[in-house]
Amino acid sequence: MKSIRTIFENIGRPMALFLCVALLLLSACGQRGSEENRQQAEHEEAPFISTEEMLADYDYMWYIIETQFPFLEEAKRTGYLEKRGIDPEKIKETYRKRIIAETQQFDKDPYNISSSVPAYGQYKNSKEAIYTLFSQCLNSFKSLGHLRITASNIAWYGDEFSEKSDRFYESFGNSGSIDVLHRYDPDELISLDYIEGIPVITVKRFDNGDDSAGKLIKKAEKISKEVVEGEYKDAVIDIRGNPGGNDAVWRKGFSQLLYGYTRSYMTVGGFKAACLDYFGENYSRLLEKSTEFVLRPVEKINKESLLEGESINEVMRKAQLDYIFQSEVTPNIPEPQGEVYKGKLWLLVDERCASSAEELALFCQNTEAATVIGKQTFGIGATGAAPIYKRIELPNSGMCFEFEWIGYLNRNGTFNDLEGMIPDIETEDDALEVCLNIIKKGQ
What we know:
- The protein is an alpha/beta fold and about 450 residues long.
- The protein folds into 2 domains: about 50-170, no CATH class; about 185-440, 2-enoyl-CoA Hydratase, Chain A, domain 1 (Alpha-Beta Complex).
- It is about 45% helix and about 15% strand.
- The protein has 18 helices and 13 strands.
- Helix 16 links the parallel strand 8 and strand 9.
- Helix 3 runs antiparallel to helix 6 (about 90-110) and helix 6 (about 90-110) runs antiparallel to helix 7 (about 125-140).
- The longest helix has about 30 residues, at about 15-45.
């Protein structure tokens, strides 16, 4: 093989330099072309969604929210939205403009990942853009009624979705899920301490980032067993600051503590006429959860025609809901392995308790499984019907969003999602201190 020096001597230095530069350029182009092909192949896995299609999906999503979401009118009327700085019309306008400004780059070049909008960042493809923008839009409602973009196309309660929806979610990876949850060590979330000889179970959240929540359930079961075997007359569960998670954690994990309190109780909710078909589609599932329920239309009557005091009908009429759904619910606490706790339970709550933590508080109050002490809770503890959430597939992208389709009432006639629940013993003082003092006085 001739040396580079020999080549230079045979063809001349200028020509040799030209050939070397040409070879380097060809090599660089080849590498760039290979990288571009790899990027294009990667992004072709994700469905391309044009700006026009996104806008059509966006308008459809808002149409569903305005005609089916049960909380908007009551949240406006009671000042809930204003108090939390939520302006639906402003949210709607803001994100429609953002869709136009931030996604038109993909209409020109669907696989151009180098484009960016300096004010908001960069999206790899149009699918990531629609998920991000629509999620941010619904997150502006600050969890009201669990209004949110669905993170996975795993069907709940047997709901079926199209192949388009499957493709949309599958392209995010094997899990079919977009969200990457922080994995918590169960020991970080559930702990057992003994204060003045009384077992105090602290639960920071009911979710460790694992959909099955298996490790968290086992930790809760272990703690429950220790409390039951200790034959303590009193035990405290402290869920202050708990934002919720997987309700299976407390239903299964604390079954030894709660199983003795499985009597039925009544719940009352309301929904909009546009959800009546959905009610019918899920009639058999409602029967599975409720031993008895009544459905009746809200009467559009004037307040002047009512007797003294407000009826359930009037509460629903003010909220502009069309149907009242009253159901007798049997709590789903699985039969535990081992003895059932025979002492007295106390549950501590505050204004940060929400979702499945709220459900536990409602369960304890409605069944008298525990005395609830603390501050008025945050809410969004839907309970009483299956399915709890209605999921809607957007026609162009296949992406789904969901929300509670029934608004449930507290004992005092307020909506739980808007007002939370009032504890049995309401206090601004430290709830644990108050609880321990009550226990001491009763001993």
